[in-house]
Design brief:
alpha/beta, four-stranded parallel sheet, 10 helices, Rossmann fold, about 30% helix, binds 6-O-phosphono-beta-D-fructofuranose, seven-stranded mixed sheet, single chain
Length: about 400
């Protein structure tokens, strides 16, 4: 390597998402032009500690990866570095691991370490920064639940996949006069369900941020039938709570692994079928919305994030995370960036626009005025009153 005094390390951590390779390429290209070598740590933070594993990155081995999904560096979700649950309640990283990371960074003479991750991985990055590691963060997640940035890369690709699924479900639902339920990811935020629901012509969108009832969902189906529409598309976020409270999970939290959400789509489908006797089918989109190539929007955003992360290293602005504040890409302190999750505001203009079109959020009659304050649906299956405060996972 030409000049060990100018070297940048990069790692990708947590669940993968489309656009990670575009960030890596963006970092390598802009770093090279500024005279840095770049090395990529393998499998996230794990690559920084025994056995330290990394690969030199160059124009050559990052050529052609812009449009590839996943990450050429691999990733670890909840490995040895997973002891974090947000800024104020976080468990500290094991000091021995931190010391190992310090040694690795010193031995490799890193000018900066670019950590690409979601809320958990960026909380780890922030802790490393507090321990003197020259860290710069890049936000990634299909869930779009990081509050500092208007969009994370990966989100648009996930929404595009979910919208494509809805387009396909639309034609078969119409042909067979069925109710189709599409369950999408997003953890405790309804961004994917909201955006895909609007883009894909969904009739009902159920999200964690808006308590809903089966009465209102069924009423929407009946209203559509009165208008001659004998099929209905329901989009439900995996993290939407059931009307009587409670998340639907695949697997409870175990050690470092967070609770795996999933299964609400089946419950919605069978309850609608039980109440209305309409033929209902459910599709759980799962990891199809996380794999595959990034959309053009995500390619551009990820490339900008990569280039800006190098700029932060060059300017010595460690402990910052790049984020998108349209039209600019800026840096904000990592500590601020991981303080709270971003969730859909029930009164946002996006939700209002959806309501104006007659999309139901399962919380009120669809003939209610879309721009006036919402009324709580008073029904037999009233929503849980207190939704638990959320912390970054
Ligand atoms: O955070 C991204 C995400 O895809 C969530 O939307 C989903 O709940 C979770 O990760 C799935 O994680 P895993 O890959 O461990 O199944």
């Amino acid at each position: 390597m030409a000049n060990p005094q100018k070297r940048i390390g990069i790692l990708t951590s947590g669940g993968d998402c489309p656009g990670l390779n575009a960030v890596i390429r963006g970092v390598v290209k802009s770093a090279t032009r500024l005279g840095y070598d770049t090395i990529g740590f393998i499998k996230g933070y794990e690559g920084l500690v025994d056995p330290v594993t990394y690969m030199p990155l160059s124009y050559k081995n990052t050529s052609g990866i812009l449009n590839q999904g996943g990450t050429i560096l691999g990733s670890t979700n909840k490995g040895r570095f997973a002891a974090t649950v947000g800024v104020d309640q976080r468990l500290s990283l094991d000091p021995e691991l931190v010391a190992e990371v310090q040694v690795t960074c010193e031995q490799l003479a890193l000018s900066g370490l670019i950590c690409v991750g979601g809320d958990g991985s960026l909380t780890i990055a922030e802790q490393l920064y507090q321990n003197g590691i020259p860290v710069v963060g890049v936000p990634k997640t299909i869930d779009n639940d990081l509050s500092a940035t208007v969009f994370t890369f990966g989100f648009d690709s996930a929404v595009t996949a979910a919208t494509d699924a809805l387009d396909r479900l639309h034609t078969t639902a119409a042909s067979h006069e069925r109710v189709m339920v599409l369950e999408v990811m997003g953890r405790h935020a309804g961004w994917i369900a909201l955006y895909a629901g609007i883009a894909g012509g969904g009739d009902v969108i159920l999200i964690p941020e808006i308590p809903w009832t089966f009465d209102a969902v069924c009423q929407k189906i009946l209203d559509r039938e009165k208008q001659g529409k004998r099929f209905t598309l329901i989009v439900v976020a995996e993290g939407a709570e059931l009307p009587n409270g409670g998340l639907v999970t695949q697997e409870e939290e175990q050690g470092n692994r967070q609770t795996r959400l999933g299964g609400i789509g089946n419950i919605v489908a069978s309850e609608v079928e039980r109440r209305l006797g309409r033929e209902t089918r459910v599709v759980v989109l799962g990891h199809l919305q996380r794999g595959g190539p990034p959309t053009t929007f995500d390619r551009v955003l990820a490339t900008q994030f990569g280039a800006h992360a190098v700029r932060l290293v060059e300017e010595g602005r460690f402990g910052e995370m790049v984020c998108y504040r349209p039209p600019a890409i800026v840096g904000v302190p990592l500590r601020e960036a991981v303080q709270e999750l971003s969730r859909v505001s029930p009164d946002s203009s996006t939700v209002q626009a959806a309501r104006a079109l007659g999309i139901s959020f399962g919380d009120q009659p669809t003939d209610a005025h879309p721009f006036r304050k919402r009324e709580t649906a008073g029904t037999t299956d009233a929503p849980k009153e207190n939704v638990e405060a959320l912390q970054p996972a």
